[in-house]
């Protein structure tokens, strides 16, 4: 991988790898609204898929680019709504984070449209009629077509305005930020997050409501119910919107505005962090930084933020152009799928700091020179240092939280800082209520998700800026040539203070569903028969259960969130099935063990955890049930 692969930012945020059937670069096409006098010679609409052009009756206001100060051109016509008959599809149940399927499944006629209509049918009309919705995505294959479908159904259901990121691009955290800033009614995110993209891979859709938070199960269950009985889709009879140019188009009472996906988010980051502090670090000649956008959505954010605002060198951004297939990669920032970056950091004379983010920009991986920070440690270290180093937390965090399988490193920080602490199920949607109630500021998941109540999603770039703030603060008085405090120094000091929670996760991706389900049933049965004091090898059982969570704010209960065996020394082995895969079943095994003795902190995690890993594999009979000898991914 070339470190300087971002030679320049293309005029379009998205470089296209595949030919898009809706894309229209044909200058000979004719359009019913071609009489509009454009402020710029580039056509505003790309409209090949629109069949009934002669019947169009719509009101069009063209403001063209926001850079222009000329008045908009308006044609006064009404928005017509058409009703499209449809039939239900099976299996449109959302998982941990949205609905994810193979692209080919989503490309079936009306498949996506059904789900979007089912969503509108699930919401009280006052939640969206004449309201504002945000639309963004990670740039993956099928987003362009999907954006047009979503815009038309929003129009058909009486939404007032859709704000869509240029080229359909907007990261998950930026959508959450924009929903909050613009006081929108909600937003759609076109992404299967860390799942690979392209015609043969995955596509996904998430819905966040007005607080910027992923829709809770009460909404997603209703959507699923409606997908089973849907019979018609309401669509605004409007042409495709040109997503490649900023500007606003009105159709009667409905309008679409193509917006800059970066500006609102960047402004928020400038309010949260001390940019001049971070700049003082990134512009040092004795500090080398590298950010790997994995050809995913943060490619659109990395240069404006790290290079233009914070003074990082342009060649510090790697894979910085979003591609529809993520450059044939798997946009998951972990030791396996971001191996190129890991190799650079562990190579000879590697940089001082490395980071990566996933498809939709909500995950992060933090690396120091030849050093990997586990996400469970990362959130604990950010929490421990937040008040001192990040202006947003200057009065101290209100509370801390983690997902159940995430290691207990954060618990120890909460205890020491005397902060309220919460343990929630896997998935970001469980943090939002706590934040809205002012009970929670900083939280994280072991799956490379870290964030705070500045928005209601995990936030990859936020986590990188938080780490840069810590390193910058620790080195702010260092003269050129003096040895800098490194990422590994910060982590080692943290372990010395709090002890180390060794943690590892084994993923067995795309197993046969039957075997994986049987294994979970077997474990549940084992849980029901086990009692405190039972011996598991050299470990003694404290308790075993299938995690149930009662939301302290609204009292809602979710059960069966992961089978866990917790031993008397605090060690844990946890088993769950992924809710984000698109094929078969992915088994996740989480292993954790606490080590207070600083002289043992520098042992490799796999070595330290070996006895517990063996115990997890034998207790679950994983090999027997799944036929798998080795995990697909170890983190
Ligand atoms: C995974 C992670 C979970 C995360 C979810 C969405 O879910 O384990 O912690 O919240 O992905 O992240 P699962 O059900 O596959 O274990 V993302 O970046 O895909 O929106
Ligand atoms: Co993601």
Summarize the structure.
The protein is 29% helix and 22% strand. It is globular, with a radius of gyration of 25 Å.
Description:
- With 635 residues, the chain is α+β, with helices and mostly antiparallel strands.
- It has three domains: 73-260, Alpha-D-Glucose-1,6-Bisphosphate, subunit A, domain 3 (Alpha-D-Glucose-1,6-Bisphosphate, Chain A, domain 3), CATH 3.40.120.10; 266-498, Alpha-D-Glucose-1,6-Bisphosphate, Chain A, domain 3; 500-634, TATA-Binding Protein (2-Layer Sandwich).
- The protein is 29% helix and 22% strand.
- It has 17 helices and 29 strands.
- It is globular and about 75 Å long.
- The two termini are 21 Å apart.
- The relative contact order is 0.11.
- Residues 1-76 have low confidence and may be disordered.
- The protein binds alpha-D-glucose-1-phosphate-6-vanadate and cobalt (II) ion.
- Alpha-D-glucose-1-phosphate-6-vanadate binds at residues 96-97, 193-194, 358, 362-363, 403, 426-428, 445, 447, 449, 578-580, 588.
